[in-house]
Amino acid sequence: HHSSTLQHASEPLRAVSRSDVMTDSPVNNVPENIFGKIGTDLHLKPNHPLCIIKSAIYDYFEKNYPGTFKTFDDRKPVVTLNANFDSILIPEDHISRSSNDTFYVDNVTCLRCHTSAHQAELLREGQAAFLCTGDVYRRDTIDSTHYPVFHQMEGLRVFESHEWSGQDGTDFCLSDLKKVLEGLAKHLFGDVQMRWVEAYFPFTDPSLELEIFFRDEWLEVLGSGVVQQEILQKNYTASGDVRGWAFGLGLERLAMVLFQIPDIRLFWTADTRFLKQFKQGDLTTRFKPYSKFPPVFKDVAFWTSSAYTENNLCEIVRTVAGDLVEETKLIDDFTHPKTGRTSHCYRIAYRSPDRSMTDEEINQLQDEVRSSLQEKLEVQLR
Ligand code: FA5
Ligand code: MG
């Protein structure tokens, strides 16, 4: 049900014309609560679990490939549309460009939706092997493993033809990529169940995603593949033939698996009962939940409107309730046989990660959500 923006393995690309992208919403669609997260840089705070896992990954690469990978973790999240999309061959009509999926700052810049936004520029700077970490932003649905701001690490390595001599360059890259990432998963998790799933990205071919079995489900932790030749040719200056692989991994997802953190919102808490459990360099922490308060569920049903999309709804809910909302889930969808109108019902789970909430507080949030939906999406409440 997620608008996982960059890959649609099984569905054909939904066409969104460039003009739609620029006219279907205000040019700047970054809400205050998202804007406020810029510069937090959790991946640079030494005792934060995201920084701990970042360092553990850097260590893996340094230990196994000494001096090979250069690391970058202070590239700014406001990037050009060229960097975020065009430079890595994301087509003009790709769904990820829509303002339903991406936060636009103005008509030439956006909040990067992935660290792949830095691939081309780092190649142009002459980097043949790098790891680049940063905060990324997406309009997405809300649940325990999806959050509109999260962190990725990009990895890319270029090989020269003598390195794959006798073999097909693409095959060589693909098997090296798998070896490196399987090694990383073993380094972080020891024995863990994992599987490769075929995927689609405009900037790699072939493309693969890695999933890890976590809490009774397969959790996607990274996307990867063999870099499109055109990206290397346009950006990387080399004397001979080159090939390369790249990956983009979700740091929250890996940290959740490693430290057994059940809810992605916890990464943003200021509660010391969370933060005190983690220490620089210590990969042995297993998160101990403190006082899990029960969730309170509230439903909202309405006739849909032209301004309604699931991402718009999620953003409104999050703008009103912030991290007090744990999940927003479509529980009913029907079309009236006579009028043809569509009705949706969402169940919103309210729960604070660190305290109990009063009925009054929850009712007030729900009232605000309802009136905000009516006002901003022009839906008709039922
Ligand atoms: C990408 O972002 C590609 N740029 C990855 C890539 C890089 C592919 C280089 C090929 C070469 P994707 O949209 O699947 O792909 O996101 C990558 C990872 O980010 C996911 O596997 C997941 O671990 C994490 N992720 C995606 N959306 C969210 C979210 N809303 N919250 C938390 N983590 C997320
Ligand atoms: Mg994906």
User: Could you tell me the radius of gyration in angstroms?
Assistant: 22 Å
How much strand content do the residues show?
Answer: 25-35%
**Ligands in the structure?**
adenosine-5'-[phenylalaninyl-phosphate], magnesium ion
Sketch the topology as an H/E string, one letter per element.
HHHEEHEHEEHEEEHEHHEHEEHE
Q: Return the structural class.
A: alpha+beta
The domain tally reads 2
CATH superfamily of the largest domain: Bira Bifunctional Protein, Domain 2
Number of strands: 13
What is the CATH domain class of the largest domain?
Alpha Beta
Number of helices: 11
Provide the spatial order of strands within the biggest beta sheet: 1-4-5-9-8-7-6
Terminus-to-terminus distance: 23 Å
Helix content: 25-40%
Shape: globular
CATH topology (fold) name of the largest domain: BirA Bifunctional Protein, domain 2
CATH architecture identity of the largest domain: 2-Layer Sandwich
Low-confidence stretches: 8-25
Characterization of the model:
With 382 residues, the chain is α+β, with helices and mostly antiparallel strands. It folds into two domains: 18-275, Bira Bifunctional Protein, Domain 2 (BirA Bifunctional Protein, domain 2), CATH 3.30.930; 296-381, Ferrodoxin-fold anticodon-binding domain (Alpha-Beta Plaits, 2-Layer Sandwich). Helices cover 28% and strands 26% of the residues. The protein is built from eleven helices and 13 strands. It has a seven-stranded mixed beta sheet with strand order 1-4-5-9-8-7-6. Strand 6 and strand 7 form a beta hairpin. Helix 3 packs across helix 8 (251-259) and helix 10 (310-321) packs across helix 11. Residues 8-25 have low confidence and may be disordered.
